[in-house]
Amino acid sequence: MTTLLIDRIDYLATFDDQRHEWRDAAMLIRDNRILWAGPCVEKPDLAMGETLDLSGHVVMPGMVNTHHHMYQNFTRVMAQDDSLFPWLNTLYPIWARLDDEAIYLSSKVAMAELLLSGCTTAADHLYMLPNGARLDSQIQAAGEMGIRFHAARGAMSRGQSQGGLPPDNCVEKEDHILCDAERLIRRYHDAGRHSMLRLVLAPCSPFSVTPELMRDAARLARRHQGVRLHCHLAEELDEEDYCLAQYGMRSVAFAESVEWLGEDVWFAHGIFLDDEEIALLARTGTGIAHCPSANMRCGQGIAKVRQLLDAGVPVGLGVDGSASNDSSNLFLEARMAMMLQRVAPARYRSEAPGGRGGFGGDPGALSAREALTLATRGGARLLGRDDIGHLAPGMSADWVAVDMNHLSFAGAQRDPLAALVMCGPFLASQVMVNGRMRVRDGQLLDTEPAVLIREHARVMTRLYQ
């Protein structure tokens, strides 16, 4: 057994059930688990191994990214002013050239960004597997980067000739999708506690797959312990129109009709939900991955996060695709989530006496700590994890430290935790995943960024030819 004492932490935020926050704190790690956390004056009298002095640092749980499309970092800053459907139609032809090398390198770039921004667990929705590409290449990348990973076997099966949105050369046969999903689950899925790799089944969206695939995927997932379900839903008014035209019902009703509600399901976005649909999600324990940056970038709208939380719907954060966010930074995403809820239109200001027009917001709609809770405990709940998302004895040793000796922290010492959201942006100085350091002194371990960037650029050039 190996033991690490993380000592003299300036500010430790555990996000545990009691929401403990301590100044001058310490944490004891044994192998891949937390043994103890608390004030330095209460340190247990145990034989210590290595000691890491984190004076001047804020320490919090590693964050959890619940929705991403990592391959999209080959198409950043494209279709800058388009709504979702035109944006997709611009990018589909480029994505149709992806192969295993492209998926592997784009995944490593995205995972490097996530680790540096304090993310220790990520779910990626890989629904483009053209040219013989397989999810195995992304799983290999996750193993090399040392990030805790939920690999989503995404799929599109309904091309334009069958009434779907994607071109026919971007879709797969449904029998192949299901057979490959079964293969991946049997080869890679680990449902155990502290698992570093789990599988998710993730048909892309109501406008790119058939109802039969949705239903078959749900039944396949539920035959295997810990395999969860994920797809896009209620993201765009065009999607709502599509569901009404094709199925005669709104998106959530369609999901219910194909057995896609339950505690093992989380949807990306969930912007266009009415009160009854929110209540249904709450009753069934169905979750939402909130992706504020992408929603703003494509002008989609503002998810009702405050209402979702108040109703009891599980909510986490996702950076979404690197072509709709153009970044993979969870600190920034937490900040965007907080700010966007504060400007969500609660009512027309013109209704107030002497109204001046415009929309009124609520500066108390979402606090900095609530935003970070979405990024930690909220994400862990969406992924069905009881071993990550907060720091307490028995939990996985996944934590992140940020150095307070930074210009953006000047004047914020009264509340260093809130400063991670309200100030910045910050990158992590230390990151541990499953008891192994992955970032030390702000530098990725076992990865040379310059080499990764060069290889990524080489493949991007090939994709654009």
Question: What is the second-level CATH architecture of the largest domain?
Answer: Alpha-Beta Barrel
Number of domains: 2
- The Rg value, from CA coordinates, equals 22 Å
**Beta-strand percentage range:** 15-25%
How many beta-strand runs?
A: 19
Which structural class do you get from the secondary structure elements? alpha/beta
The CATH first-level class of the largest domain comes to: Alpha Beta
- CATH T-level topology of the largest domain: TIM Barrel
Number of helices: 14
Give the assembly state of these chains.
Answer: single chain
The stretches of 5 or more residues where confidence is low (pLDDT under 50) are 347-353
Q: What is the terminal-to-terminal distance? A: 52 Å
> What's the pLDDT, averaged over the residues?
94
Describe the structure.
This protein is of the alpha/beta class. It has 2 domains: 3-61 and 387-444, Urease, subunit C, domain 1 (Roll), CATH 2.30.40; 63-383, Metal-dependent hydrolases (TIM Barrel, Alpha-Beta Barrel). The protein contains 14 helices and 19 strands. The strands form 3 sheets. Strands 1, 2, 3, 4, 5, 16, 17, 18 and 19 form a 9-stranded mixed sheet that branches. Helix 5 (211-221) links the parallel strand 9 and strand 10. The radius of gyration is 22 Å and the shape is globular. Mean pLDDT is 94; it is low at 347-353.
